[in-house]
Structure formats: structure tokens, C-alpha cells
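Example record

The entry below shows one chain as it appears in the dataset: sequence first, then C-alpha cells.
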Amino acid sequence: MATTSSHSFAEERRAAIMSMLDHNASVQVTELARTFGVSVVTVRADLDALEADGKLRRTHGGAVSLHKALTVSVQDRRINVNAEAKQAIAHRAIELIRDGDTVLVDSGTTALEFVRMLDMRSGITVITADITIADFIDESMPTVDVILLGGALRKGHRYLHGMLALRSLEVLHANLAVLCPGAFVPNRGFMTDYPQMAQLKQAFIGAASSVCALMDASKTSADGLMRFAGIEDVEAIVMDEDPDGVVAAAIAELPEGAATLTSLDVIYGGGAGGPAGTIWLDQFTTSNENVSDTIAPTVRLSVSGTQLTAAVSDNVDRTIPQANVILTYDGAALNFTWNEASGTLTATLPAADSGYHRVSVTACDASGNLARASADVKPAGTRTSPFGDMAGHWAEPYATYLYDTGVSKGTGVEIPVYQPEKNITRAEFFAMVARWMDLDLTQYANVELPFVDAASIPDWALNEVKAMYSLGILKGGANESGLTVNALATISRAEAMTILGRTQAKGYAEPELTFSDAGQVPDWAAGYLRSLVGQGVITGNDNRIRPNDLLTRGEVAKLLYAML
């Protein structure tokens, strides 16, 4: 969203975010954007600022709270019960983990012992609903990343559950889920005593390529209330011993020859003379661990007056939950009605006014693939450009939008001009992008820039450049003197599109560039250009993209507008 918000509004919003973290332990960018009615870019800037202040920890798609002390839950008071067995189980289970794996980790003391072993591997990410486990990793395992699921806190047990946790798991995927059953009951399966925990464990199974159960021998003689999985739902079971052969007997009862189904081909040519008969399939387990979903959802939308209708579908996922869909109006989230079964979104837009507006629907599937569709909302009646040099120019609507939202006021006193055909400098471009992102620029005033030519940055663009550098959007270039920003130099289209690409979320389609001059695109810019093409931001002209041409101010206006 390009509208400027005051410093006080940003402070209030960030205070509210911290309050939400106090209650839910984690927050998601899309939910925050919808709650506060701001763009996802604004939310990311809020979270980045709060992390810089040491108030939270950023995660992919959100943030988690920081806890100074490791407290002990009811179940963790059993930490010394069967301690040697649990340690032996954890030591064996770590053999299932490879460098770079993402692991869903259950709650409980055996799970904690398993986590203690993870520093034997590198590049590990742990997804958990257990606050004790998250605290331990934060305090003692700096090389392990944590994604803490949101949800309701089960008092005294220090884990989170409920709809928020389940919804979070719908958009996450792990290599392995590590489950710690409360009991194993013959002819029933793996059990737990709490219904909400049973739901969470079932969701863990659905979010992982493979599943491992860890349990000491005492679990085979324990009672359980709720079944969450059968013996056929896990790929591995790690125990210290199976004293009565209960688990071994359950495995033996599986149908002879039961195995992972790698491929099933049923060939029938059809026709009156073709083969006929019945195929009976019973007791088989399938696995799709080698299937990779890289195709984004399809989003189509239409606007009639103030009524918007959108259809969202996906080639792999049967349905997409409402939490994975967002409607924005000029970058700010709007409320909508969602029919998950049909994938239909309906909403009432604000009444047309004197300005140009952009409405977009963005959808994310379970594999993290993003897709977006947008439509323009034209002014009610005739709108005269605020710039004296834009009448009839192709970029007039886009420049007018930038004026209305405070991104660019042009130059001049009585009648400002936009100068659409003028090549834009790097400082001007960085300033416009920072304002378009709706950043609270005062938050970056004390940032120290590493550029050897930082003194060349105009005062009117200094905080904007600091913000872009702090967020990792501006990286600068290098010469024999050091890192440079070249603030007063003009910027090429490839350089500008790289900057814009860095402001966008990961997950959009990156189709191959088919422009006639695609071979001129620098390697360092190709991925960002493909992403912008996948979003529909870049369409080219006469099948050319002109990556090395200088960018004009009119082109900037269109690009920023198209990204809403």
C-alpha cells in the first residue's frame, strides 16, 4: 500500500503485534495484514523492525515470540522418568535425520531428548507446537531454526493447539514428523489422552513426507483415550524394548506383502470387445513423497461496479483454505466471503471515487506456490491529472495514483510536473519504492550505511535508502574502493526489476523468458524478472523486455501500480 501512515500508527500496530505474540506465541503475515488492514509489505517491515529491536524472531511467513526463561510443563516434570531409555531412543532416531531436513517435532519429554541430538546435524529447521522445545532451541541451539505454530495454549502443558495450529500446518511441509504417543493399544493403534492433541498429531502426519514414532516400553502398557494413528500410518518406530511383543504382533498382523505403493497402472483399452472384470484392492499404503507440486493455483477475478467475484483452483490441492487467500485494495487487505468447496471469493469493494485503484486476489497452495490476479477500478467520472505534463500520456493513470498516495508529488510549485520520459536516478527510484512500501522511515534514521559514496545520497532520499538497505532490498555494487550505491546515476530496467523482485514474496511462478531479447538479461536479474513475469507485472512490449535500457519515470509508475 502506498498511503503514508504516521509514526504513531506504526507504533500502535507493533504494540498490538507484540500483544498477539504474548497470547499466541506466533503470528502470520497474511493474518496480520487482514487484521490491521495494511499491506503484507507493511507487516513485513513491522516484523523486521521488531526483530531488529530484539522483541521477536522472524520466521518464514511470520514471527515467533522470544522467551528468556525455559519453564517446565506438567509432562516435562517427568523428564527423569525412564530417562536412559528416552536418551537411547533419541540417539537412534537421529539416524533418520539428514542435513538440511525440516522436522515436525511433537510435544513431550522423549521429543525434548530427540531435539537435544539435533546439533549433530546442520541446516535443521524444527516445526513444533511445544513452547518448551522452542525455548530450548532458542537458548541452546543457535544453528537450529524454529517455526513455532500458533494456537491456543493448553495451560500447564506449554504446547499450542486448535484451529490456528492446524491452519498453519496446512501451508507447511516437513521431511519427517516425529511423534511421541501417550500409549500404544493393540487393535487400536497410537493413542493420546487429549482430543485436541490427537487432532494436532494427525495434522503432523499429513504435513510430512514420512512419520516416525518414538516411545519407551512403558507406553505399551499404558491406557489411551483418543486414537490418532494406526501402525500402518508410520514408516518407523523407535523403542528401547518391546517387552511383551505387542508392537511386533501388530506389525505382523499387517497384510502379507503390504508395502509402499510406488506406482499403480490400470490399463483398459475400452470398446465393446475389450476386457471386462473387477479389480479388488485391499490393505495397501500409498506414498507421494517423491511428488513435487511446483504449479501455482489459478486465480480469475471479475469486477462489476462494487461487486468482485474470484475463482481459485489448484491442479493438486482439492481445496484451498481461506487463510491462504487474501484480497487487497491498493495493497490493503479487505474482508471477503470464501466458499472453500467451490473455491469462490466474493466481496463488496469501496464505492468508486476520484482516484484510480487496484484490486488483487492472491492464493497460496499447500506447497507454497503463489498466484495473483488483479483488476483496475477507474475513477467515478473524469479525473484530471494533478501533473501539468501528463494529460493524454499512457502513464497518466499510474502517475495519478502515485500522486494520490503520496509516493510522488513531482516537481514544481503551482502546477507540479511528473516528467514521465525522464530517466530516473537510483536515489529517486529507491525513494519511490520505499514510499510505495509504506515504510515508517523514521525507524531507519540511525542505520549506518556501508557505501563509500554514501555522502552523495540526497537528504530527501537518505532515510529511504537506509530502509531499503536494512531490508536487504538494496545491496549496492562493488568497485576497487568498496561498496557503492551510485545514488545520482540512472538505473537500468534489469536493476530496477531486481529491486522490485526483492520486495515480493517467494513462491510465484518463474516461467522461462520468451522475449526476443531474453538473452540480454543478466544472470543476477533473471530469477527476479521471471517472478515478475509470473505475477503479470512485466508483459514486455513488441515481445521485447529491453533489460539494459534506462528506466523512465513513466515506466516506474506503471510497475509500482501493477505490483499492487
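Notes for this example: Confidence is low (pLDDT under 50) at residues 1-6, 67-80, 257-290. The longest strand covers residues 357-364.
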